[in-house]
Amino acid sequence: MKRIRVVDALLRKGMPSLLAACLAWLPAHAQTPEDPVESFAVHGQSTYVWQRKASMRSPYEGPNSLGGGSASSYSFTATVDVGARLWEGAEVHLGGEGARGATFSDLHGLGGLTNGELAKTAGSDMTYYRAKAFLRQTWGLGGGREAVESDMDQLGGFTDKRRIVLTAGNFSVLDVFDGVSVSHDPRTQFMNWAFLTHGSYDYAADARGYTWGVALEYIDDGWAVRAGRFMQPKESNGLPLDTRIGRHYGDQVELEKSYTAWGRPGTLRVLAFRNKARMGSFDDAVALAAAQGGAPDLAAVRREHAKVGLGVSVEQKLGDAVTVFARASAADGKTETYAFTEIDRGVSGGIVVDGAAWGRAGDTAGLAVAVNALSAAHRQYLARGGLGAFLGDGRLDYGTERIAETYYSWQAARFLWVTADAQYIRNPGYNRDRGPAKVFSMRVHAAF
Known about the structure:
This protein is mainly beta.
């Protein structure tokens, strides 16, 4: 807790000065690149995920329980990104998205929810919306050149190894922060929310995973530092955003260092975050319920609070085709989940193998495990019948939520991948009275 209080002070007092210092350091003139760069590009993707949950032990159920019966779920998303280069070092991107789907138990009953795409869905009818609209400005500072691959949200070309990058507008916090290369994209990699990022990283986002804000990065050959501020939703896990970014916000700072171990490259990242919003305190809700009777209710005690947390991640190459990764994170656990999921402590790790190891260069296989935990205050709130954004069995026989996931992604054609996936979840919703939950998935992903 002492470390978390130190992080709280650093983020609260240091974030504005850090951003100002970095902006003041920008060069007056960017270097003139000699290499050709992509001036315009259109990229798109579509992803369909079908999941089947087997029946499980469920002696009782509350309003936010994962149902005990067998059930099916699906999600479909389609995204288009249009990118254009405005001037030297500057590119603008506009992204549209459509989504539809059906969830397990209205997206309740788990800390590690089973499909990272389901947050974007709003029912069985296709919903269309703007997903992204942002400007990225890169100032080159020398140090040699490296290639930038043409892809979603980035134009192909070349950039200096030493550079400053400013990204501003409407995008996802995870587009910039905690970029573990083999465990961050549910469209192509692991599907469970516990593997998208740090489990306790309650990063600012609307209900679809996007927000407005600004991120500033200094990137050198072998290390990087990033800082960003983003809008919070007006209400916990809501869609409308609170535009008062000077009052309610999500701040984060990340340090990244590349290294070599056993002759292979690796990357270490350390992330600290601080959120400011009107949030309910678990202790306040329990105290009010004890005084007035009934179940505790976070909505009755919401006021200005800050949530802080830390996360460490590492990824390491073990061979040309093998990568391992691990994450560990903790938030203070005093207040309700505001924009991500109900995990206060989390560790995860896994291995991903490129199909080149068996002559299938476009294929990928992965295996990962995660252990999620709640703070003491969060447990007490749920045990007394309180409801969270995703949890609420009416009572709680607490146990850590343990998740194992494995997948095989088969490249069926140049732009088409088909994935088989299986997940096993012990103590779903942190309740030893329930489960285990077993979920089997099929995913079809196309991209151009």
